[in-house]
Design brief:
Elements lengths: L6 H18 L3 H7 L6 H7 L18 H11 L6 H18 L2 H7 L1 H4 L4 E5 L15 E5 L2 E12 L5 E8 L5 E7 L5 E3 L13 E12 L3 E2 L5 H37 L1 E2 L2 E2 L4 H29 L5 H25 L10 H9 L9 H14 L4
Helix pairs in contact: 1-4, 4-5, 4-8, 4-9, 5-8, 8-9, 8-10, 8-11, 9-10, 10-11, 10-12
The structure holds flavin-adenine dinucleotide (FAD).
Amino acid sequence: MDFALSGESKMMVKAAKDFALKEIEPVTEKIEREDALPDDLLQKFAKARMLGMMVPREYGGIGSSALNVILVAEELAKTASAAVFVMALNNSIAETIHYWGSEDIRQRFIPSLCDGSNYASMAFTEPATGSDPTAITMTAKHEGDHFILNGTKRFITNGHKNGSGVFYAKDETEKVTAYMVEKNTGGYTWSKPWSLMGLAGQGLVDVFLKDVKVSQENILGEPGKGFHILLRWIAGERIQQMAFMTGMGQECLNQSLKFAKERMVRARPMTAMQGFQWMLAEMHASIEACRWWTYRVACMQDAGDDFQIDSAALKLFVVPTIQEVARKALQIHGSYGYCKDYKIERLYRTIAHAGITASSTELQKTIVGSALSRSKDI
Ligand SMILES: Cc1cc2nc3c(=O)[nH]c(=O)nc-3n(C[C@H](O)[C@H](O)[C@H](O)COP(=O)(O)OP(=O)(O)OC[C@H]3O[C@@H](n4cnc5c(N)ncnc54)[C@H](O)[C@@H]3O)c2cc1C
């Protein structure tokens, strides 16, 4: 068992730190104000070799690892910016296309996700459901050598930005298939972005497909096997999301330490009081536990092991743990923590999202609990 990061991983962390300071922190206020990310950000990620990290070089990737993606996500997360998800989504969707796609699909869709010219989307949520993929109502009607897709997808990250998306729809057999849909196809329209509590610039839109024609060559994986693709992708997305949470938790501690060292209570810095020292110690221990477990599940993904149950258990632990870290951080800041002038306010709002997206905390309990019940080991 080796807990040391490789030289390459350390370089990635350093590169992510420099990127966050140079490209994200200076524009954070603008992103919050305008609820939009800079147009050139994705290409800057590509230049910094932070896209296509899990796909081979022949498709424009850099053939790195899931571990390095989450190390980058953790470091960028200290900005508490939705910018991290643009990077993470392009990486995880490129990996998914590479894992399941035909050679033709790989060649057509992966390179533009690696060079930052296209935004990837993953579209499964609908107005009536986000947690129950069997209840989706988007239809795909087979006509000759293509399919006609109809229906609405809700809360689709970057659904309005150029590129392609993986859309889940049911054909006449009622089975769910994943289709690669190009966003500039006729009949593809979208709503204005939802206004969110946090994650300014995330760009969540509803997407409306009205008789959208999709070639049968654009089926990702096998027909009727869309759930396998969705569940494996979400499992990977969860690890990235937990890295994002861990990084924000670390920043909560960093900000709290800075504040508590300077803030005087009864003529002494807060850090001199045992009660606050204990809070800081608990925050530190919680974050370390989240960090190492997240790294471990990412390493399972890199080793080709089945990581779906582990990533669900990871989420069950990390979400409430980091939310408690954020609560303590806000408490340490007193009323300043409730003011937008202090970073803790943005961190707290951003941290609130994680129990809902990439499948909810409740569903992780079902995944882990039913796996334990099926287990024959005991
Ligand atoms: C920032 C952000 C980004 C997003 N990006 C995307 C995206 O790119 N693509 C996409 O498709 N979607 C995206 N979503 C949508 C998100 O994935 C869904 O909203 C989420 O899966 C929950 O679905 P829902 O809101 O329909 O809640 P519901 O499914 O209606 O669930 C409501 C509540 O009921 C609970 N619940 C539901 N079923 C069960 C059950 N069987 N047992 C116990 N409890 C249950 C849930 O845990 C939750 O607490 C995004 C959302 C956000 C906020």
